[in-house]
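Hi team, as promised in this morning's meeting, here are the two structures we talked about. I've kept the exact order from the run log so nobody has to guess. The first one is mostly here for context; it's the second one we should focus on when we meet again. Sequence first, then the predicted structure tokens.
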Amino acid sequence: MPSHPETATSATALPRTAPRPPAAPGGRSRTTVRSRRFRSRLGLAAALAVLPATAACAGSATTPSGAADGGKPVDGGTLTLAVPYGPTCLDPHQGQADALFSRAALDSLVWQDDSGTIQPWLAKSWTISDDQKTYTFVLREGVTFSDGTAFDAAAVKANLDHVVAPATKSAGAAQLIENYRSARVVDPKTVEVTLAAPASSFLTGLASPSLGIESPATLAGDPKALCSKIVGTGPFTSAEGFTPQQGITYQRRADYAWAPDGAVNRGAAHLDRLTVRIVPDNASRQGALTSGQADAAAAIAPVNVAKLKADPKFSVHSAVSPGVPWSLNPNTEKGPLTDVRLRKALRNGIDWHLIVQKLYFGVSPAATGALSPSTPQYAASVAGQYGYDAAAAGKLLADAGWTARDAEGYRTKDGKRLSLDFLYIGEYFGQYTALATQIQAAAKDLGIEIRNQNLDTGTYVKRVLAGDYDLLNSSANNSSPDALRLVFGSAHVPTAKIDNNAARYRDDQVDAQLAEALATTDVQRQKALYTAVQQKIGDDAAILPVFNNTYVLGTSARVRGVVFEQQSFPNFADTWLAP
């Protein structure tokens, strides 16, 4: 799926806990930090979905900006945020999780702290059966949905059933709880959830905004209605709902009093209103911020970050996300790239780090593996597989028989040019055009022709399902190393439907190791298994990682208390406006 990093990236690489440096004069922040309010790492592995997932990013939690600035929160006011695009559907159960748009209204059953530990939220406690297939949750008292109904065990059951129901046609949320089988209401405040098989990533999935809890009364209606209006237990509610191509306005819930234990603000939101407006053009979006028409703007172009940081009237907040980096996926099943030597030549014969540095000015770090470094169980030992070595790449191509050159300098074998088709949907790929051009030029230096093909959605889907491509791009924001299973597991090769395994990678040993890692709760065993998988993926050159997605948010200096969830998108429950 074409992903949309804010600042032209969308994936991960920040230490999971990073103290925030003192703010510069005027409230100018040099780096972005995670918040204590939400440390939950979101997991959406819809890496090949036809429509883009929100550029979200991840990272660790630390002190929000208001505290760092030493200011005392002030209640009131409206914060206007300009973003480049909106969700395919406001309901995260259905559409690709656009957490920025849905999280304001939706809380989760649990949340995940900086160490990866799952902590209480709407569920105050839980137990897990010895066979790891039954989870019994005890729920918090006094929680209500914004429609006035009580949050209870029946609501949890209704939400889980809704996520996996065929009629919901989930684009990503259902994958986070693939092993979910059923839920049983024990009493109003106790719900028993049964899995078909053990899943060590189950609680992590529940912490995601993709599994945000919605009012059961709304889930029973027309699924399309949820694409414009959702009702949750969160600190904000929207009377008007979401308007495509325009945005959404949220109003503060005065009675909100059930933030997670780690939240800085335990009560109602400070802001009276949060208005999110869709402004696709980069220059217009940044202009809205600098002119005062907006208080914050997402996806600040990397070339403009340094200038904005240097201006005391503004702050820049950024966060790098966990999961699978923004990558090119080589078709390992059909075409020239079935030869691992060609895949390795493409991986090591292009100076990806130089391209990323030139285009993103250090805002988005170059990727060094199938997972970003901020993902639990990232194996640093594999980074060496992704180094630049043009001489070795040339030898691999020669060994594969691509020794002759045609009049344009491209390699040939048996009179046929070494050409690769890279498919994308132009509507969602605009910000990556320069990147694609740079990659194309670097590949030509190797003697490889990459044909960049801008397709409409229907043609793109048809060709993907038929395996009629050589390269696709994708990324997957996911706070669990189980992202590897969703992106490289053979069950997720797109055939009958769009799915995550764009490389069409199939390896029985990898499948077995990923299944074992999902089934075990032994952290050391998980580490060994996930390390082995990352090593094998590298050995097989099943991914060409490019950069770790980064969310970059510019704000007026008077915007305080900005915090990021672990998937690396901003959350405004703690935010306030300085006088």
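And here is the second protein, the one for discussion:
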Amino acid sequence: MLPLNDTALGLLLAVVVALPLLGAGAALLPAPPGLRGSGPDQAVLRHGVTVTGAVLAGTLLLAAGFDHGQPARIQAETDLAWIPALDIRLHLGIDGISLPLLVLTALLTFLCALHAYFRTPAGPSPAAFVALLLLLEFGTLATFAVLDLLLFFLAFETVLIPMYFLIARWGGDGRGPAAWKFILYTLLGSVVMLLGLLVLGIEGGTFDMLALATDNGRDLGHTPQLLAVLAIGIGLAVKTPMWPLHSWLPDAHTAAPTVGSVLLAGVLLKMGTYGFVRILLPAAPDGMATFAPYLAAFAAAGIVYGSLACLALARRGAGGDLKRLIAYSSVGHMGFVLLGIASLTPTGVNGALFANIAHGLITGLLFFLVGALKDRTGTTELDALAGRTGAALYGRAPRFGGLLAFGAVASLGLPGLAGFWGEMLALLGAFDPAPGLNRPAFLVCMAAGAFGTLLTAGYLLLVVRRVCMGDPAEHPEALPVALPDVRTYEFTAWTPLAVLTVLAGLWPAVLLSLTDPAVQHLLPGATP
């Protein structure tokens, strides 16, 4: 651990959160003549790599200076009055729950900026693209770092506008309707969530998350807790996305540019599940206990539904889109996260947090790969891909095909890779839920989730067979020129995700040692 005191860490956290916002403003200014390189477009793209790289370095420094012996304690804390009349404070801090999400956000955003530098997305001004990317990073980092309910809402909403424009202006076919669907769903959910946050803050006497968590709902009546959980839960469920509030996600992913899909799946979905753990579990435990069986039922339904939708898209002749398939797979994977949270046990919640990180790494890698596949073949439709590659990606681009297969088996939860631990712990949490919950109902949900893992293996292996396996010589109708294998910049962007997927699968204690004490501290009645 680096010898940094909490004041220095607090300043570092504030800089990490604010730097992308400052960088977004700077991206819209003309580049100094000496820094333009071959042109202003290259200069602003290099600016995006530089700022996101500095943010990543700052989060790694935070992780190094974090007191890993006390991950349940809020560290790097800053608490300043902002709007005293409304009791709104600039309150920042991190613990073992938020730190991994900060690092994941910084890593994925840096890799996206690096990808955009070498593969500039077709669309309007690169300066606007970089500014939106940095604004998106600012909103996401702030969501995971703030400790005030109203600041959480503002940060939660900040990400909507940049993601809307990334889809609407830099997306592919159908980008306009997909962007509108994204913004309407999430804004409507956010309006309901704001009402719940106001109920929680007003009835609890404070908007400070730490005070509400310490109180564990003792100053809240049962009815206010129910109202808060219902309203806040709906807003968070839309962002997660929970079935049946998920329908904006496949369209958004299908239309979004590669970096938009990576960040949408890798970090934006995690904002919803993070809100459940950070706000609702400690501040409204009675309300969560009342709604937990319903949350588990929706989660289990989402797991099975997402897997069946992917199977339908993967079959021959269905005209399924690979980006759309991965989007539906996210509905299923996030269902495991919600199932773990619904168990209200340390095992289940730790599984949910682990699955959050694993999904960000694996699905981020898959969207990078699918984006590169579209660049090479001009399509992500499975039937067309099979024709253009001859269903022989192993033979035409072996390293590329191997990485795609690696991402698929990681996503299906193969033991030894990151996707396994979160889903297993979520199912174990459902097997033995918190006292007072209906165990037979949770056992049904656990069985549905286990069935979903079998369906997941089925559709992902089908995708690998249809895209990767075959003999190029048997498909003369495929692309006549060999597909380019993994390029240097692609190798640089994808390797960290693949390596971390393996490390998290082989050494899960690194992440669980951070989250478990913090979860034990947040869950009312949980014992270490």
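Starting points for discussion:
Residues 293-518 form one domain.
The chain has a mean pLDDT of 86.
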